[in-house]
Amino acid sequence: MHEMSIAIGIVNIATDEAKKANVENFAAIDLEIGTLAGIEYDSLDFVWEAAIKDSVLEKAIKNIHKIQAKAKCVDCENEFPIKFIHDSCPKCGSFLKIILQGKELRVKSLETF
Ligand SMILES: [Zn+2]
């Protein structure tokens, strides 16, 4: 499953940070995931427990900050929320747009005990 490799990638980032900070465990992890990042939030939850087992995140509370995707129309400069990458501008119908946000997938913060 795609989300499993994402979860393992997050665990690897946390493991590196734990070494740098010289801690054994984290109390919490904050993730920022855009709605266009290609991640199923439910699937990530589903694989999470297995991914963090025996890792520095085993006791960590996971907080996911969902970032609603937004785009700016190239033709009329209207800013609008998008659900799918191919959505057109609701104001003028143009398909030309710049994605402003929504593709994020990052570890925002890690908290120690
Ligand atoms: Zn437009």
Q: The biggest beta sheet, please?
A: 3 strands, mixed
The CATH level-2 architecture is identified as: 2-Layer Sandwich
N-to-C SSE series?
HEHEEEEE
Determine the structural class based on helices, strands and strand pairing: alpha+beta
The bound ligands are: zinc ion
SS summary, helix count: 2
- Largest beta sheet: what is the strand line-up? 2-1-6
User: How many distinct folded domains?
Assistant: 1
Our Rg estimate from Cα atoms comes to 17 Å
How far apart lie the N and C ends? 31 Å
Could you tell me the CATH topology label.
Answer: hypothetical protein PF0899 fold
> For the residues shown, what is the average pLDDT?
96
Helical content stands at: 25-40%
Low-confidence stretches: none
Give the total of beta strands. Answer: 6
How would you describe what is shown here?
It contains two helices and six strands, in the order αβαβββββ. With 113 residues, the chain is α+β, with helices and mostly antiparallel strands. It has a three-stranded mixed sheet, with helices on one face. A hairpin with a 5-residue loop joins strand 3 (70-73) and strand 4 (79-81). The longest helix is centred in the N-terminal third of the chain and has 20 residues, at 2-21.
